[in-house]
Amino acid sequence: MKKDNEISQDQVLREMQMWQDDQCSIFGEYDTLWAMFRAVVTSGSWGTSEYGGPIWLMDFSLDNLKNLFPNNPWLEAMEKEWEKGKWEHDGMAKSDKLNRFSDWFQYRADHFVKWLGLGNVIIKQESAFGGNISLYGWCLFLEVVRSLVGGIVERTHHETMLKYDFSYKEVDAVIRGNFLTRLKSETMYRKFPCGAGSGFHYFKSSSVHGNCYLLKHFSETTGYVIPESVPEKILMLVVNDLMECKAQGRGNKADKDGNVVPYPQMKFEQYLDCHYDCGHHFRPTVDVFRWKRKDGTFEEIAIDLPKIDPQYGEFWHRQFPPKQKWRELK
Question: Residue 292: beta bridge partners?
Fold first, then answer.
């Protein structure tokens, strides 16, 4: 991993000026930003974040980038852009420069996750129209998560499937939710629990914490839970509870269409390339991320999946226990 002092301030300022001259395009290639990208994706894995759990948190927030690259003038400039404020209706920065800076990382991270076929990954960015948190996994599993926390599961449209000549088998897989995609936090509730299930209609009122909800249907926690406000923690706890629910054989009843919510995988064998012109839209994943730059050179990042202890068998989430728990009303 490159260290911050390997990037001279002159280089950072020069590339930042190039980025601004290119109208802050997310498609430009800059060694400084690639160094930041590489540092984030090589410094973490499943269970290594402060929240633990069976989640790989790729954190491209300014705070985390500053931890990895202190005294970096590009990051200092982006902090000043934050001072311009944010739009209160969606929490997005008013600074177009900051939004494009954030999107530069998300655009590449999205490709990184899908091409490698990684599951249970959270990409956090500083600011975004679709919310600054994305959770990646099998669509059908993400739909269950969405029913509890809100948000939007990204799917391809019927018109797109017609335009790019999806096969019947591919269309059926999309309809059933059997493909890798992401849950965007665009409409995710600011606090959890706040889902729509019948179990969430019951609550106790606390003069300190407000309405505390009864959590019992998919979690080992059966008491009244104090609302949480950190999306990464919320998603980690929800995903962990749902995976444990599957491991215990609960919640395996098929729906009216015969679909059974799958136990999430750490790495999938294929991903859905919606806009591939030559057919075969389900394409095999790889083990090395390769990104072709405009000059014909490549950025390459290899990943090593954690080895799962045989005692956990197929239920790999148990090797990555949460470092925090639901806060219960006592």
Answer: 298
